[in-house]
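Hello Y.,

Per our agreement to keep a running log of every chain we model this quarter, I'm adding this entry. I've kept the format consistent with earlier entries: sequence first, then predicted structure.
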Amino acid sequence: MNFGLDPVMHAPKRLALMALLAHAQDADFGFVREALAVSDSDLSKQASALAEAGYISIGKSGRGRGATTSYRITEVGRGAYQRHKAAIEALLAGAPFNPAAEEARSGD
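Predicted structure for the entry above:
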């Protein structure tokens, strides 16, 4: 039983990345790496998993040493994050999570 938790997002580093992006228009690689205190390769791996699920988009600009990578939450990702957050809050409150009720409340 998953209790309404999203298995892709539930990994702690992915959840932290989603929480960060849920409160920002976008964030660049260096900022995210420092905020999450992860290595370059770990951030790339976690972000790729979220991008494959359609939860974030990864933008690249420039080439070579001047290239920058940025991340942005997608509408699909925002909805998934809100449902996951509601499931966690319900579990912590000791209340059963009802995915159908949450979907109706969020308008999905």
